[in-house]
Amino acid sequence: MFVVFVPFYNRHPPQSRPMNTDIDYKNNPLHGVSLKQLLTEIVEHYGFKILYAYLNINCFNSNPSVDSSVKFLKKTDWAREKVEAFYLYQFKNLPRASAEQFELPPRDRIVPLDQKPGRPAELSLEDAERLREKRARKAAAHDRDAGHRNGSNRRASNHPGEPVQGSSDPWAKWRK
Q1: How many Å is the Cα radius of gyration of the chain?
Q2: What's the rounded mean pLDDT across residues 17-22?
Q3: Distance, CA of 114 to CA of 133 (rounded, Å)
Q4: Which of 17, 44, 51, 121 falls between 20 and 30 A from 2, CA-CA?
Q5: pLDDT tens digits for 81-109?
Q6: Which whole-number Å values give the CA distances from 126 to 20, 49, 84, in the listed order?
């Protein structure tokens, strides 16, 4: 008895091989731009104070430098994606991505050919503070609504014999 090893590239017959889907990312302004280059551009234009005010990432606030920020952003995916999205939609002033594209990391997003980068958005510390207040109000409203949805019909305990809060008759729900 002998064993035949099939090379990786020949495991599937030609008709069942996955199609080669080369996606063109060349219209994405992040294509071919290093993280250091990207950060240098936005720091030269906006400065660290504006970046911290809009992104709320501590590496832009405590002892900021491009090198230390790059080091942190390379290790932290969520922060890097936040900075890359800022670069695309504030600095390059592209229109917001579709819901489908928004789920992808910024470097993997496909920018339609008809969308061209524009001039950087005019940002100020006052606008950043208003945006921060708006986000805080929205988060508080979300938390308040979540409490109403989840807390209105909760049981007082996990014991099945005890009534639901606000009702003296545990069987009232099923009586007609």
Answers
A1: 26
A2: 46
A3: 34
A4: 17
A5: 999 999 999 999 988 888 888 899 998 88
A6: 49, 12, 22
